[in-house]
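Hello,

I think I submitted the DP6 job twice by accident. Can you confirm which output corresponds to this input? Input:
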Amino acid sequence: MKATAVAPANIAFIKYWGQKNPKINLPFNNSISMNLSKCFTVTSCDFSPKYLKDEIFFEGKKIKENQEFFIKIVKHLNQVRKLAKSNFKAKVISANSFPSDAGIASSAAGFAALTLAASQALGLNLTQKELSVLARLGSGSACRSIPDGFVEWKKGKNHKSSYARSLAPDSWWEISDIVAIVTNKKKKYSSSFGHLLAPTSPYFKKGLNLLPQRIKKVKKAIKNKNLELLGQIIEEEALDLHIIAMSSNPPLFYWEGKTLEIIKKVREWRKKGLPAYFTIDAGPSVHIICEQKYEKIINKKIRGLPGVLKTIINHPAPGAEIKK
Ligand code: DP6
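Support: Only one job matched these inputs. Its output is below.
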């Protein structure tokens, strides 16, 4: 009863920020993302009657049972066990290809991989929709790491109707997401805290009203491979997420000074004719979106900026898969 799965992180073009029902990670709005080829989690789950308790190893280290991370994973394993009507304990071994908590949604990749590996190991033959629904319970954005390529999460009305599906496969559009990492520190506040506070911002409702138009435009941009249109909307979305976070009560500041420096540079380069656009999730790292033919030159420029520790060049990627 063992399976190994690999799942990508994803970068949100239309952001998920705020939860209608925090107990089951039900969002206020639909969101759209792209899976990332170089930021992924590999997780293996082994269920056996010989295990007396769950054991979790992350990046080679055994996780203590009182840690929040351990508790979240066991809670998710329990969801899968409930579906499979099993009470076997598990040994879970997991590792990321990228630094955790650097503004790349590590829990998206983590819970997508865990959902697929655990359900497969327990012999559940779930559809992609069922996997996405289940992954969502672990971490909202994880439901978008199940389908391939460019993905939309339909907010739905209840647990079973809130899941993601693919808008286009990873081979559809040759674009890159260059992640500029500016700190190695763990982020100060979790996304869950941000979701909880979002509705306290005076700009939250206003943001929601803008979304139907933005979603239409992002879908059109993906369909027509129109980077200029995509770029315009993702920058508006990223800024609005942080406007909402910074005006929540209490306010949340995810940016570092270097974050703003990179934003300014990207806009400067664009004025000079280099087509690059930025987006930012709940962290200080900046994701620079461009066509693959420009990725080398843009990557070189980003790496030359003071304070950029590292970059990761991603292409669109398939969703969660079983590793044979
Ligand atoms: C800002 O609750 O899915 O990335 O569980 O911490 O990965 P984690 O986050 P989650 O919220 C993600 C929020 C976001 C925007 C997005 O991915 O849509």
